[in-house]
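quick one, 134 residues, struct below
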Amino acid sequence: MRKFMFFAAAFTCLSACAAQDARTSTGSAAGPADQCFFASQVGGFTAGGPDRALVRIGFRAGYELTLSPGCPNVDYATDIGIVSRGGSRICTGRPAELVVPRPSGSGAQRCLVSNIRKLSDQEMATAWGRQPAD
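---
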């Protein structure tokens, strides 16, 4: 399993993020709470096909990130980072960026995430090679 690398330097909007979280905790700005996650909760990732990345949140949840065309192939990445562009949580309907370190170790490539979708239990089981929960 690949290890998720948290890019702490990418989170420089602390006061704006706190204000956004106050609105999303009531559910008014983000919709259902289970459609959001924090970047620090990502426990692994895998490629989901062309211009797609699947991220695992804990052991039971996961999301499909649809990437803009021309993004680096996450199939060969050893680490990734996810940066919200509208608060501290990554949510369906909010812009985000995927950060993929260059293989040379000098810097990283950023890629716009065009869509975020929560995976079903069956999709989670298929992506990480285990039996779906009953």
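The chain is about 15% helix and 35% strand.
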